[in-house]
Amino acid sequence: MPLVHRNRHTETGRHTLGVNPVFTREPTRIPRFEMPADELDPDVAYQIVHDELMLDGNARLNLATFVTTWMEPAAQTLMSECFDKNMIDKDEYPRTADLEQRCVSMLAALWHAEDHLHPTGCSTTGSSEACMLAGLAMKRRWQHARRAAGRPTDRPNLVMGINVQVCWEKFANYWDVEARLVPMEGDRLHLSAEEALARCDENTIGVVAVLGSTFDGSYEPVAEICSALDRLAQDKGWDVPVHVDGASGAMIAPFCDPELEWDFRLPRVCSINTSGHKYGLVYPGVGWVLWRNADALPQDLVFKVNYLGGEMPTFALNFSRPGAQVIAQYYNFLRLGVEGYRRVQQNSRDVATSLAERIARLGPFRLLTDGSELPVFAFTLADPDCGFSVFDVSAALREHGWLVPAYTFPADREDLAALRIVVRNGFTHDLADLLITSLRTELPRLSAQQRPQRGNEAATFAHGATPGSTPNRHPG
Q1: How much is the pTM?
Q2: Nearest CA to 177 among 243, 248, 250?
Q3: Does 313 reside within a domain?
């Protein structure tokens, strides 16, 4: 079924766009929902589109998104030079293909893969595609093992916390895998080793551990989960692998928490993904997925494609896609190096922890996390019965230009409503000062309210849901 998009302007009855006479020759009106019959002057077309976009939010003030909103001019120049390069055409653009492979090798070394000079991995359009590929590899390995043992393969399941990004529910839905979602409980807002273990059986294709929950920025205990699964293998013979969804954390932990074992140093970790366009510091969209070794990626998932004179292996859901983001990722790896990434990511963490502490000192708020893992933190109201809601706070900050999402947590903590702030490269201590000023300006007005003006229906930035249900999942 095609996705249906409501055309907002149909409510006004205006099906044409009026063109400012300053910028136009002919025509003075053009259709809004059909292609114009004739050409437009390029300056006129530019001005029309430019004016339409003027009311979009300021990306630098968007504290909801994890996605990179600032890059150096040199990186932007490189990207503009590569806009026309098709990443899939490795025979025509061999240097671009080689730079992609160098990025994979660099990530393999960063994540302690067995042989980073001969890594198994690839770039993707983002973490969602990367997670799909990792999930497919886990399912296919499980199927091979079951068939070799003469056992049925019709009931695969995948264990993960309810806080996973919606792409994992899509994976389970699209590829007929039972999603065993562990609900939250009390102060436990992500997956624990105990809860993961309780839901595994002989049909479990894997456990997804999230290094940096999108709900509150916390790391799930990857090493503890792996240790519990090691005991399960000894006790019952069920060899359950772990995939680490490091969409954000896989580009934070290696630099800010180098002693934390979460990656291929743990033998049970079979694959890792990350988003280059999040804390990889590249404009959207690029992601990466790596496997421990070649054995972790079943070869019957890899296609050999004869394309434009060369045969190439490919494991992807997309075919043609731009190469500019991969080039920008390689630029960042060269430009920053390990120390540069450490400095950038640690600065983001310092801003996050400082800002969290200052918000806590304002009085009306209680921290759920403090930005000391991902440079991301969530906070709620210290008194749930005060005269305003987190949704009122979000709306008040929007009047100052800030996009700070307010949302409710998923099962079984739907009672918890919170705000979340994502600190990215480019969000400075000075901008944090301005945000605090905005909060202080609005708090007297909010405190004077007799009752909240907005409730759960005002939740912002929903990012998917179980089909047919009300969206309540959180953005990544």
Answers
A1: 0.90
A2: 243
A3: yes
